Amino acid sequence: MKQELKQQVVEANQRLVSSGLVALTWGNVSAIDRESGLVAIKPSGVDYAALTPENLVVVNLAGEVVEGDLRPSSDTKTHLELYRSFPNIGAVVHTHSSCATAFSQAGVALPCLGTTHADHFYGDVPVARALTPEEVESDYEHATGVSIVELFQQQNLNPLEMPAVLLKHHAPFTWGKDPVKAVDNSIALEMCAKMALMTWQLQPDAGEMPRHILEKHYQRKHGKDAYYGQN
Amino acid sequence: MKQELKQQVVEANQRLVSSGLVALTWGNVSAIDRESGLVAIKPSGVDYAALTPENLVVVNLAGEVVEGDLRPSSDTKTHLELYRSFPNIGAVVHTHSSCATAFSQAGVALPCLGTTHADHFYGDVPVARALTPEEVESDYEHATGVSIVELFQQQNLNPLEMPAVLLKHHAPFTWGKDPVKAVDNSIALEMCAKMALMTWQLQPDAGEMPRHILEKHYQRKHGKDAYYGQN
Amino acid sequence: MKQELKQQVVEANQRLVSSGLVALTWGNVSAIDRESGLVAIKPSGVDYAALTPENLVVVNLAGEVVEGDLRPSSDTKTHLELYRSFPNIGAVVHTHSSCATAFSQAGVALPCLGTTHADHFYGDVPVARALTPEEVESDYEHATGVSIVELFQQQNLNPLEMPAVLLKHHAPFTWGKDPVKAVDNSIALEMCAKMALMTWQLQPDAGEMPRHILEKHYQRKHGKDAYYGQN
Amino acid sequence: MKQELKQQVVEANQRLVSSGLVALTWGNVSAIDRESGLVAIKPSGVDYAALTPENLVVVNLAGEVVEGDLRPSSDTKTHLELYRSFPNIGAVVHTHSSCATAFSQAGVALPCLGTTHADHFYGDVPVARALTPEEVESDYEHATGVSIVELFQQQNLNPLEMPAVLLKHHAPFTWGKDPVKAVDNSIALEMCAKMALMTWQLQPDAGEMPRHILEKHYQRKHGKDAYYGQN
How far is the CA of C130 from the CAs of C147, C157, C161, in angstroms? Predict the structure, then answer.
């Protein structure tokens, strides 16, 4: 695995702290090198400040550790299921950021209430169902990933257009083409969740914004004629 | 365009970050040199820390780039419409600051609930209407500016007395005589919105404060006999 | 006026910023030298970082400037009325801190909901009435001070036991024996207001805590047999 | 008492500030050396930045000062009762962190609404009863500790599985095997309380999450086959 990608994973993990998305060790970022099929992920329970490209754990898509002396994130199997099923994503982020976690705990999908949301998420951010006792007991973290993939199939969602999910009773996952974009989506999700809570205090009936404005904002940033940014 | 004004635009953009008003690249500041009619604005999607007077984009009031290699902010046409229609303003700010954006998303005008508000905004901060599908499709950012100008004409508002607007489904714009004052108004708007949310939790019926106190606070800071500050 | 007291006033003003109690220039601290009857106060509209003992304004209790080239805080007359009527206080603080200002705007007194409050304020923090048009027009800042003093007389409050007040439609004032204690009270007031908002979300009927616990906490810190701290 | 443990107590106290859990001097951490039965605790009312291993106060389990020139935390007797009754704990933390204090003031237990909570607390965080006038008058801080111990006996709680309590009208205490773990629990408690407030805004009926997910998360981190972290 390339040193450069590992360095990006270290920086993306550390950016979870500087962005206020994680307390203690409540979050992890991974990235995949699609050529080799190898995934670099945060070691479990290690402080963000202590991360280096050398102490990241590298696993293959079957979950076998191929590099590193530490135990990988306890959420590794969820990351791997996402990489196997969503072939266009390059990085995955898990946090317990406060506002998005509140939506997860409440089991409430996050509707597109404004352009901030439409700039990042093409519609409602959905909630994945709670796992059954059997799923939790047999292979919890793998089943978590499967429940996300099922949800996206059922709702016919494109993972690059909807790079986030809320896990019932748990917390969010986001992803993206690379570690920077995946963390951007975690930040955007947290801010949209925070603003939704206040929007509903002001206007409890507020629902999805008009579709033509949602389309405009999503497409001006992500569509084929996008004109936001420098690329 | 003078180097000094460009430097002020750089610093004003960076102050959006240090004041906690923007996440990611969700905000932009511009300023106009009224003599030449040239406007310096943040390039689109560029990190605030990377801004310099040299990489700002300079456009004329017709929207043509006259200096700079980067693409200007996607909101440039909104800024330009404000400069064309509000001849006394010198700088414009757009953010997605959380509390003011919640008011925008809810479509709720921000009433003057106390002296903090009266020190900056001479009455309710109004909400501009959502744009029609036709407006969004033909020239979205220009139509956004036009909707603000129409609102101020309909409500007979003086842009220097009411240097802020909430865009329905979107977020706020503020402005001022110069970049410092325009960002001051973004900070004041966000704080007033935050305090209004809490005021209404305590007292759901709280409305505009008595007019004589509003007048006093606005005039002691902005009137012809103002005695706030050193000028 | 002693240089040491001026230095304390500078540091107390700057601590308003580092404690998150003020945005822009929304706050001021003064202190009185009771021997000479002179008061050092923040100049109006000046950035906190630019304050030095030399650019503070020194006024006498009649409000005449006796030192300094700048205009004193626009709230100076309120400070002076407090010094004249509350002979045991040594410093006064005014902020627009968000949560305490929300209580002020709502006109809701802050009850003693727990020991954090009882450690600093001996009972409910009261709300001073709105001023009449005549009071606002004739001598607004002086009348503000008078309304506080009247309130404390009517409610028979001891200013050292209740070192805070909420001004209707406006914001809080606090005070104390010296600048450090006065700012401590502003911080405590803001935190107690913040916690009250959340307490009432959980339990809308929560009112004053049992009197015997209030007494215990107030007296263990401020009573004649106090055993909190090192003095 | 070993210098190393004292150093840990200093750092744990200072981490209360850097984690945003305390304002002013509203919190304290202690640790016990079980071999000697000596407890190192923060001196009362002293700024966190001024703490050193040398100015900590060392007391025995009977509450006698055996080292140090300063007065120990006014909450020392509560700490000592916890050490005497909970023989497996190594450190105790008291804060007035905002959200957990709001739950304390409201007298509302904090249910396990999601996996963040289950990762740290094995069920509801309970509320200890208010003390009677007699208890408050005779030996307040000791009685506080006794009320916690009684509660844990009545509810048959294991202090290492439930390392936190909310004191009615007051604020939380947490503990753990060592100072780092005890402060971790204070941080986790504050975050869970914050997220619960938002969860209930979204879904007022939200109660304890399904027991099988609670079990899974608690056990994967704390059970005999735990696989979270590196130990």
Answer: 9, 19, 23
Averaged pLDDT, groups of 10, chain D, 231 residues long? 95 98 97 97 96 98 96 97 98 98 98 98 97 95 98 97 98 98 98 98 96 94 91 76
Rounded Cα distance between C18 and C35, Å, is 31
Say what the ipTM of the complex is.
0.96
Cα(C90)–Cα(B136) distance, rounded to whole angstroms? 60
pLDDT in tens, A167-201: 999 999 999 999 999 999 999 999 999 999 999 99
- The number of residues making up chain A comes to 231
CB within 8 Å: A71 and D199: no
> Cα separation of A133 and D209, whole Å?
12
Give the Cα separation of D217 and D116 in Å (integer): 8
d(CA A121, CA C110): 41
What's the mean per-residue pLDDT of chain C? Answer: 97
Strands C65-67, C57-60: pairing is antiparallel
Q: Are D114 and A104 within 8 A, CB to CB?
A: yes
Contact A39, A30 (CB under 8 A): yes
Question: In angstroms, rounded to a whole number, what is the distance separating the alpha carbons of residues D23 and D21?
Answer: 7
CB A41 within 8 A of CB A73: yes
Domain definitions of chain B by residue range: 3-222
- CATH number, span D3-222: 3.40.225.10
| Token pair belonging to B67 | 């200096």
pLDDT tens column, B68-103: 999 999 999 999 999 999 999 999 999 999 999 999
E strands along C159-202, which residues? 164-167, 172-176
- Per the CB < 8 Å rule, is C71 touching B202? no
From C196, which residue of chain B is nearest by alpha-carbon distance? B202
Pairing of strands D65-67, D91-95: unpaired
| Cβ contacts from B onto C, under 8 A | 90
